Amino acid sequence: MQGGATLRLLDKADKEILKLPREVKGAIYEFQHRFRKDPHSPALHFKQLKGHAQLYSARVHKDYRALLLHAGGSEYILVAVKDRKDVYENLDRIKYQINPVSGGIEFIDLVSFEENIEATRSDKAAEPAPVPVAPPSSLFTAFTREQLLDLGVSEALLGLIWKINTEEELLVLTDHAPQLTGDVLLALHDGRSVEEVLDQITTPVAAEDEVDTTDYATALARPATQVTTEDTDLREVLEDDFWRWKIFLHPTQLKIAEHRPYSGPARVTGGPGTGKTIVALHRVRHLVERLRSGESKDVLLTTFNKNLAADLRRRLLDLAGPDVAKRVEIVNIDKLATQIVAQAADGDRRRWIDDARAVQEWQAMLDELDERRWDAEFLHAEWSHVILGMAIATRADYFRARRAGRGRNISRADRAAIWQLVERYVKRLDTMGVWTYRQVAERAARLELDRKLKREAFEAAQVSSEKLHRESGISHHPRYKHIVVDEAQDLSAAHWKMLRAMIPEGPDDLFIAGDSHQRIYGNQVSLGSLGINIRGRSHKLTLSYRTTREILRAAQGVLGDGEWDDLDDGRDDLTGYRSVLHGARPALQGYATWDAELDGIVEQIREWDDIAPAAIAVCVPERHMVAEVENRLGRARIMAASIGPDGPKVHEAVHVGTMHRFKGLEYQRMIIAGVSEGLVPAARIEQYADSDPLRYRREEKQARSLLFVAVTRARDTVRITWHGEPSRFLP
Ligand SMILES: Nc1ncnc2c1ncn2[C@@H]1O[C@H](COP(=O)(O)OP(=O)(O)OP(=O)(O)O)[C@@H](O)[C@H]1O
What we know:
The protein has 731 residues and is α/β, with parallel strands linked by helices. Among the domains are: 249-343 and 441-572, Rossmann fold; 351-432; 584-723, P-loop containing nucleotide triphosphate hydrolases (Rossmann fold, 3-Layer(aba) Sandwich). It has a seven-stranded mixed β-sheet with strand order 20-26-25-21-24-22-23. Strands 10-9-13-14-8-15 form a six-stranded parallel β-sheet. The radius of gyration is 29 Å and the shape is globular. Adenosine-5'-triphosphate (ATP) is lined by residues 244-245, 248-250, 253, 270, 272-278, 515, 518, 545-546, 664, 666, 712. It holds the Pfam family UvrD-helicase. Residues 249-548 form the UvrD-like helicase ATP-binding domain.
């Protein structure tokens, strides 16, 4: 064959390549250029390996050779880089195949698998065994060859799999094994039945066409074959493992991100760290790449807060570059609402107040009126979630409103009194020249709805938007062609109404990523009732790329056994939620006093001097505790910075924040402090235990979610501490 060639890197091959000396990695980058240009250049020593119809070797460096799998035509896949001396040894222990179930190309170097597993065994042998242990038995002897093959396990690995004795060995194997083999083994190990694994793991990634196990060209194009596509991908993978998310999506992630147009709103759910945000970013790139060329920002990417919007902007630029990013409006949901209201010159001179400030204002008003029937928090929640949340405009509508899940029943007379108080409160805020974010969202939703109705009326009258715009100067064009929402579980009904009105119903209108287990602002909605119908277009991710199995188990324990919604009228759960990462169990430590706990925080962070301070965070339940931790760390000469609405005030420091501030973030090591009874959940909810049990349960559940979010931000290590009595949510 003459001329150039295509060279791709196979997923997982990078794991071994990353261990090679730096100069060899540099040489691989040079090599790929030369190979692409002319694989037959004499300097490359390109030749077929004996006994392997499809396997070739080529020179990368004086001491290293690349192993390349030929996938038809001029397509080659880089599957390994080996020391020159080892290339011709054990050629019979190198296996590759097209997986008959997934149809993906798989490569297995049995020698390297054995070495990696052996390394775990010798590490273990070096540790003194505290108590005599029973002789190990294989984790997978209960499964037959046929069962494992039907589930999509790679045949070449069966021998090794039956020798796996410990979870640690299993995790080493799955880290290097083809994706489907790893996923199946972990699910079986986690106790799922063969039928469940077939249903939940294998079937979703099974090939849609019939698999010809000799047709490598077709196999290369299937989502189950995870390879790099761009030339630059290889460099990024070789530079840092950190960038894997940009290149190797899990087949389930890939299917969602590159799905052909969805006929309407689509939704992806999944536990923390399963890559919902990553999928949303890839989907944005996919949508932008299918837009007509232009300059307009046709895709809206929105999330809950400012800090996360800034993070999305950074990650989208990393993933897709400025040409894609310039077509995307990235803004947090309340800012979007504010912009819409400001554009309509409708109240834009007002200042916002947050919920805590709004509750104080309720309290001040109730004190002035000597009104004791309802407390300030109840009234604020009723106004925010029921009246504004459901966009109730009149007293009569409020009388009719269903207050599903909102707590104690209130009579017609109560509603009349509450309505009166709300009117008075709203006037009070008007006079002060302030309003809450929720009022802004509700106003924005109305404005967008109004705009939508006008657009539809003009369409019905067959007046084109252009003509209307020319003649009246008013634009009723939809603002965006596609809307992508992250952290969807925390958006309120008014936010959804605004988004729904903003974009006409149609293919790829809304793409929604969220997890109800992480809802921390009490905004439970049913998307269907808000005109967002996701039936038949929802997906679930179950593999966590962030947290270790140990942290994940502890976090699930925190959630208890309550019920969780699917952002619609259905239920969601964390069945199948798993991780391939392994680490220490979360440490639990109690102290007699908060002062002693603060000393414990300082001591622990001093011990963690092997990593950068910015990889460490301390999370506390209450605002005043943030300053207290910051001060104590400062006194110990440890740089600390609190996390504000825009993110950490200083980057190169230990970050300290309330649990709410950690939404969507991740850290290598975390201390979750103050997890004491009375703080988690806050003691104030006890007043509702008898008077309003529904509200009590709702608030307790929200507090569980908050702790769940905090615990799942940690990648490697989490330490949970308290003073006095530990929180009832802890084991
Ligand atoms: N396919 C992948 N390969 C490698 N890393 C990945 C992949 N998908 C996600 N990750 C990594 O996993 C981590 C979590 O991803 P992401 O933030 O998208 O999860 P999430 O589901 O949105 O989490 P949360 O709900 O907790 O906010 C990130 O560090 C991300 O880079």
